[in-house]
Structure formats: structure tokens, C-alpha cells
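Whiteboard transcription, Tuesday session. T.W. wrote the C-alpha cells on the left side:
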């Protein structure tokens, strides 16, 4: 069972998504285990503050290293016999792709640090996180959405998460898919057709047609 421990200051962001569809079913069937940790619970500040102004000046606030350090250590100690990896989401990190996902499959658990505000104290990246990951060349307000993207993308590679082996291997949006009607006419004299090979019933030719699109992902 793959375990995901998410460290965030907005734990309720995850509530709806993790309780629906295949993610919810996979948790129920003990294929994956997802635990949300409120970073504020690891602050020793009376007001549960987890951020402060950046040294050197600048806009916004920065998440402090102390509560993140305590949270990560607490989670690691709860799962001492597990092979764990700590991931910090950052726009400058390695871009998430299939190769990265397959590498992460070898771990028993992932500790996912979700940044917020202007960023995270650089010492988290340098001394606590094992690696930084990005889901694209753009900026988000926090690491919560990247965490959900990683969890779903990785879970799809775990046997039992999807219903069919074919889905596990191929359903990456790597070939065009169609359904009825075979011909759609939005206007007179306009016909949008499904490729003939998909209507042929010749499974060998259909497989060959699909494989040519898969090559770009190899």
C-alpha cells in the first residue's frame, strides 16, 4: 500500500477531491493511504504562526523551517520501517512526468510539502526535502494542487487502482478516442467522422493505429 502524507496549512482543500471517484475507492480498498497534516499543529507559537517576513525584505511571507522540520520528523518516526521520500513542490523543481512517477513507485511512502505565500524557507529544500517537483512552467498559489496531481498520476500506476490492465498501461491520453455517433454534422454539408479503422472491427489494425501514437511517449 502506497502512503501519501501531505503537509499543508489548508487541510480542508483536499476534502472533496479525496472523497470521490477512484481515489476514494482506492483508499477504501487499502491500495493507497492518504493522511493530511495541518502544519499549524507543529508550531510552538501560541498563535500557531507558521510564516514570517523574509530576511532582506521583499513582498509576502515565507513559511518557516521549524514547523516543517517537526512535521516531517513526526511523520518519518511514525513510519520508521517504511522507505520514504520527502518532496517539496516548487516551480523550479524537476517537472513531473511518467519517468519521475515510475521512479517514485519504488517508495513505500511520500511526504509531500505544500508551500504557500511567497515561498518556503530555502533550508527546507536544502536540508529536509529529498527533491523538488514541479507540475509545469507556471506559478500556483500553493502546493496543494500539485500534490493532488502527483497522487492521482502515481496511483494510476499502482496495480488494482484501475479496473483493467490496458488502462494501467495505455490510458494516458496518448491516442485519440471516439464514441457514437460515427458521423456528426454540426451544420449542413459538414461531417466530422470517426476514423474508418476504428469502425472496421479489425482489432489488429486498431492496435497498430493506436501504437503509432504511443511511440511519442516511449
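and on the right, the sequence the group agreed on:
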Amino acid at each position: 500500500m502506497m502512503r501519501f502524507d501531505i503537509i499543508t496549512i489548508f487541510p480542508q482543500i483536499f476534502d472533496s477531491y479525496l472523497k470521490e471517484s477512484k481515489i476514494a475507492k482506492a483508499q477504501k480498498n487499502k491500495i493507497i493511504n492518504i493522511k493530511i497534516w495541518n502544519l499549524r499543529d507543529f508550531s510552538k507559537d501560541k498563535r500557531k504562526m507558521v510564516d514570517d517576513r523574509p530576511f532582506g525584505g521583499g513582498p509576502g511571507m515565507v513559511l518557516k523551517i521549524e514547523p516543517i522540520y517537526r512535521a516531517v520528523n513526526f511523520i518519518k518516526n511514525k513510519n520508521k520501517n517504511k522507505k520514504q521520500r520527502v518532496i517539496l513542490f516548487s516551480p523550479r523543481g524537476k517537472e513531473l512526468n511518467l519517468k519521475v512517477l515510475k521512479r517514485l513507485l519504488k517508495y513505500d511512502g511520500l511526504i509531500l510539502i505544500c508551500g504557500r505565500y511567497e515561498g518556503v524557507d530555502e533550508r527546507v529544500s536544502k536540508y529536509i526535502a529529498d527533491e523538488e517537483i514541479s507540475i509545469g512552467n507556471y506559478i500556483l498559489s500553493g502546493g496543494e494542487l500539485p500534490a493532488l496531481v502527483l497522487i492521482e498520476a502515481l496511483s494510476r500506476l499502482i496495480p488494482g487502482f484501475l479496473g483493467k490492465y490496458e488502462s494501467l498501461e495505455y490510458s494516458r491520453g496518448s491516442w485519440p478516442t471516439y464514441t457514437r455517433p460515427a458521423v456528426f454534422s454540426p451544420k449542413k454539408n459538414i461531417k466530422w467522422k470517426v476514423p474508418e479503422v476504428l469502425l472496421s472491427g479489425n482489432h489488429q489494425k486498431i492496435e497498430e493505429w493506436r501504437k503509432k501514437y504511443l511511440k511519442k511517449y516511449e
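Someone added at the bottom: The chain has a mean pLDDT of 91.
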